[in-house]
Amino acid sequence: MIRDHFRVMLVDLSSGRGKVADLEGRDTVAGGSGLAAELFQKYGRPDRSWDDPEQPLIFAIGPLTGYFPLMSKTVCAFKSPYHDQYAESHGGGRSALCLRFADLDAVVITGKAARLSCLTLGSRHLDLKDVEYLRGADVYATGKMLRRTEKGSGHRSILRIGPAGEHGSAMAGINVDSYRHFGRLGGGAVMGAKNLKAFVIQGNGLFPLPENKEYAELFEEVYGKLTGTDMMSKYYNLGTPVNMAVLNEIKALPVRNLLKTSDPAIEGITGERFARDALLRNAACSGCPIGCIHIGFVREKFMGENRYLYRQVSYDHEPIFAAGSMLGINDCFAVLSLMDAIEKMGLDVMSAGVALAWATEASEKGLLSEKETLLPLRFGDGASYREAVRHLALGTNEFYRLLAQGTMKAAAHYGGEDFACVLGQEMAGYATGEVFFTSQALGLRHSHLDAAGYSYDQKHKGKDVAKAADFLVRDERERAWLTSMVACLFARSVYTDDVLAGCLRAVGYGTLADRREEAVHHIQRLRWKMRIRTGFDPESVRIPKRFTEVVTESGAIDGAYLEVLKKEYARRIKELAAEDAS
User: Fold this and answer.
1) Is the pTM of this model over 0.70?
2) What structural domains and CATH numbers belong to the chain?
3) What order of strands is seen across the sheet that includes strand 86-91?
């Protein structure tokens, strides 16, 4: 049933109770990213710390979730432990479709449970259970136990944290259905601060589809474009790991803490090598016919006489870069083993890998000793990194506790800020040039997905500041619209403006389709307003010196151009937030 309002479940962990609220604004904020920002504006506490019990943890889906393929993401919004400001993290898996079948557009979780707990909700029930027996359990053990104990009909999604989240690490993510994550900016720590070990969504309600001819025809058209052409074959075939060889070839792949941008030994961790030697199977988020999730395997000898355990590990370009080239590890199975160790503890792979790369170089330069690192850190030494991951997640000593709050915080204390590869947070796996560095450093989520700066660097060789800033503002706005749907960004070439408008009309949201331009501008401004209201100052962002030392196929980074572009984009961001200051 199409609704003009949002149906939002408000959960108070302190009392263990919840209630459903009907909120207006469908034609203004659409859903997803827009709805999350609107809910934070309503329920967030900008002047309080990220771990204040009254700070909300928000999960939101879009108006097309469940109706069309690849509308498969959920937006998770919170005040981040990384910078104590508004943040978004996007995750796939089954969570979005489960919320749709639970007849909810969003869930807002506030309060703090008295003991470590698991929240379970569906279309007709809400339950908060004591799970103190899971304290200290890793994400895999937690998921295995909950699959046995949380019975129910229909679709089910299990969101959980590991030890890193329980210990308040700003690098702690939220694991979703084993192979997907709300990975960046510390959502796992927010759950930990609320004594919430897990959140189980049971999609046990009904979800009727539109019966009009227009919807059926448009669904077939979209489905055909996604599956019947070569448009999406990249994501199913080698997947995003294909980027490893491509970026290495154009000298744009971060290697050994960005000391280099290419490595002749990279062949061992290319997408082709993973597919040939380590790929076990493909999987997909619910509602997706593509199957872009690539799952490899690692094996571990647990007894003599050749007895082995096999574990399945999902991989993409960014985790391979962070646990591979950034740490000088060039064996696909060693990379998978390290990724497995990181995710088991509930850490974000990109954040952990880049942090350990900085710590390795800091050790080489004599800024850190084994008194801090507890073991020797050397580029290429996967076994040592796997042990370091445990210390990072548990905060074993002062050094690891500080590093877990962000690489730049550790660098400010121990030295080495100039070579900390931090662009708002630990960098993503692209060293393409000035536009990407500016985009991630100042982007709303400090994500490589805020705008396609990495693509702009490769396609535009000039240094036109106004043109580049125009692109960043425009591309971020277009992506904000997609993430308000909430569409997988892999499908952005299919879900053009006209197609999205048609989809919205076909399911009954004609007014939103007609007001698209007004809505998307409002959403972009609202998100920036939430970020700035919680303390973000784009003009104060500093890009570390290491990024000015990069040399790509296009030549050396132009530090002056980078600085001017950063200032101009910061100015545009502040203008956007000010426009919606009412």
Assistant:
1) yes
2) 6-203 (3.60.9.10), 234-401 (1.10.569.10), 426-579 (1.10.599.10)
3) 17-23, 6-12, 106-110, 57-60, 74-79, 86-91
